[in-house]
Amino acid sequence: HQEVMGDPVQLKDEGNKHFQAGDIDKAIECYSSAIKVCPDKKMLAVIYRNRSACYLKKVSHLHSIDVDAADIKALYRRCQALEKLGKLDMAFKDVQRCATLEPKNRTFLETLRRLGAEIQAKLKTTFSTDSRVQNMFDILLDEEMGKENKEKAANNLIVLAREDAGAERIFQNNGVPLLLNLIATGKPEMILAAVRTLSGMCTGHKAMAILHMVGVDKLCSVMAIDDEEIALAACNLFQCINDSLTGGDKREYGKEEALVLDASKDLKTILLSLLEMVASKKVSGHGRDQALNLLSKNVPRKIRKEKDNSRTLFTIDHGLKKILKVCGQVPELPDQLPLTENTQLIASVLLNKLYDDLTCDPERANFKDICEEYIKSKIDPKDMDKTIHAVNTISGLLQGPFDVGNALVGHQGIMEMMVALCGSERDVDQMVAVEALIHSSSKMSRASFFITNGVSLLKDIYKKTKNERIKIRALVGLCKLGSAGGDDYSLRQFAEGSTEKLAKQCRKWLCNPQIDTKTRKWAIEGLAYLTNDADVKDDFVEDELALKAMFELAKRADTYDKKEIIPELVQLAKFSKQHVPEQHPKDKKDFIEQRVKRLLKAGVTSALAVMVKADNSILTEQTKEMLARVFLALSENPRDRGTIVAEGGGKALIPLALEGTEAGKVKASHALAKIASISNPEIAFPGERVYEVIRPLVSLLHTDRDGKQNYEALRGLTNLAGFSEKLRVKIVKESALPDIESYMFEQHDQLRQAATECMCNLVTCKEVQERFLQDGNDRLKLLVLLCGEDDEGLQTAAAGALAMLTAVQKKLCTKLTTVTLQWLEILQRLCLHHNPQIQHRGIVIVYNMLNSDDSELAKKLIESEMLEILSVIGKAEDSPKRQEALDAARTCLVKAMDLGLIKPFTNTS
């Protein structure tokens, strides 16, 4: 028998014998023992099946129970058998009947409760995750399934992956290999769903697992696909993995953090693979853009204080030449790398960020040497295509780390080469050369060289060429050189005709859809220089088609989670210049207002909002400041603010107010304050964003800001504080109270009123009430005195605050009488006020004092003229305008009767 105890085969056979003989309980015993010791999965399944058959047999044995409900024991046994079979709802019904028949039986009640809970839990999990996960994969991998079902399933997976429990379930259900199968289908929508699901799952230790299960090469090959959405989604996934590995992922994951072992090896592999992608022919333009974006975002140090810039040095050693290669591509030539219209600009931005991240001269010298060596290796007088590659690379450097590009232009031979290319017969040579000339004339020192040599070159090209694309670029060069001369008119006039004529030509090109986007963007560039002239500004805003065309170009390609950059548009900010050296008559206020109107009508806000959504790593601090200035100019007129909110301007201002130059942050905060003061916060700043608005507004309260900014910030905070308790708490948390209080003491009427209104909306906060209860300060005294001021707006706010405070804090009713001798006189004036709102608030304060449990105080009030005032008001005829005040006075009189201080009115004849 000892043998049988441990041998699953024999135990199973033993069970079978008992089953045959009809001894079901014994059979169950044997099978249960066998299950405990059986190592073989297939056999285990058989034993489980046999044991289930036993339970089923027991259940059917017990079906006669229905006839004799009193056989409770048998009923309970059936309940247990059903539970073992996993038929919880049937088991629940049985035990429910047992409990009905014997309501005091503890066992039945306990089982009933336990099964109820289990059913709930099971419903929740089967419904929520396991089966849903499996179900979704089945739908997605089923060839026959309809498109709509697949889309639904894909979205469900993505949503599930973003919740911890869901991600864990997908993981345990063999999810990663299944997601790889989806990618393998090669269908864009499947790939997208899989990649977005993986992004959601990438938290804590899962990121490492996903990285190893999918592999960096696979991820790169997905990002390399020629599909903008997929490239972007893959870029996101890389970012999630990177954030988890570097600890940039700040969500809480409990203990699993410890499992993320040293990630530096993986990070290095990813970095090398991204650099590989930068110059690979197999990678699409969109994939290249995203690889460059990832490098921009993750290689340079985020915080200057960190000493370690080894990632940048590593990238320069292993990838600088690859990035330079991208800058040098000339799409018009055969056999180039696939690019989008943004790729080369993104590459220039990356070069700039890498160069900025260097910490000492030797590092910078090394960067310059690599660039120089690369350019030299490409210059070949016998091979024009190689040479224009070199010139284009210099263009890229001039748009990135200007100093490096500038140093290279100065090298012997390069200038002459550009000049030679300008004279070439081939359009593409001229185009590359003109662009390089334009980029290198950004600094006056170089411009003087060009003004002598370049102008005649460019004029020449402008007149001779039949190619519109070159014509436009030559014109931009002329515009740029013209404006390089600043306000010196002699220089301005050299281009053919006047600035207005040139601008008209640029506007014509801008509106022509037959011309490619890149060239039309150059037309905007030309206008950017020409609009320094107020006449040009004015003509431009009259031209609604041109404005719309410009904004459309600025918004191009704004798709899912897109990080777009449109540097050309930044020049638009010129229209809000605060100071123009010699003021043109058309830069006066009313002209500017007209221009703002036209810009808003043409949709400027959504174009700006798209730019702000751009990846912050690409927007420079100056650009952000420019954007903030434009927003501030647009939001000047309260009537325009609705338009700005409707096109997403409120949201867009938040990031501008939180980071950038000091001036930029202040301007953006000021524009935010203007919008917050008159908008419904839920619409202007949807979702959680509204909480982020508070800090910028509070920053405008500081004394070093000007009065207008203080005032608008107080107005904005008042509006937010009137909206919800959560917002009030947040305002208090941002330590706004001391500032708001100090403005209540301010001499300036408007500021004092705005601060008091703000306080009136904040007094429902416990912390605010506590400040009024503290001893040794004048807060309460100030409120009482403000109620006695002549300004009605101020009185309304102060009396409102006092009415609310005395209602919630009875102690303040007594304290109110000690802060100033004039308290009673001020109260009486409020109660007799001609403004019904102020009168009502005054009477409410009196009621609160009668209701304060301080019998002495109540007596004092009723013995003063207050009784007469209340009686007169209480007896008055009903009137809709003053009804609130009348009702309040009557309530006071009833209260005084309750307190036994006055007798009911008796009609004396």
Automatic annotation (TrEMBL):
Occurrences of domain UNC-45/Cro1/She4 central (ranges): 293-481
Main localization of the protein described in the UniProt heading: cytoplasm
Listed A to Z, the keywords are: Chaperone, Cytoplasm, Developmental protein, Differentiation, Myogenesis, Repeat, TPR repeat
One GO-annotated biological process of the protein: cell differentiation
Q: Where are the TPR repeats?
A: 8-41
- Gene Ontology molecular functions: Hsp90 protein binding
Instruction: Name its cellular compartments.
Output: Cytoplasm, Perinuclear region
One Gene Ontology cellular component term attached to this UniProt record is: perinuclear region of cytoplasm
User: Which InterPro entries does the entry mention?
Assistant: ARM-like (IPR011989), ARM-type_fold (IPR016024), TPR-like_helical_dom_sf (IPR011990), TPR_rpt (IPR019734), UCS_central_dom (IPR024660)
Q: Which Gene3D superfamilies match?
A: Leucine-rich Repeat Variant (1.25.10.10), Tetratricopeptide repeat domain (1.25.40.10)
Put simply, this protein is called Unc-45 myosin chaperone B
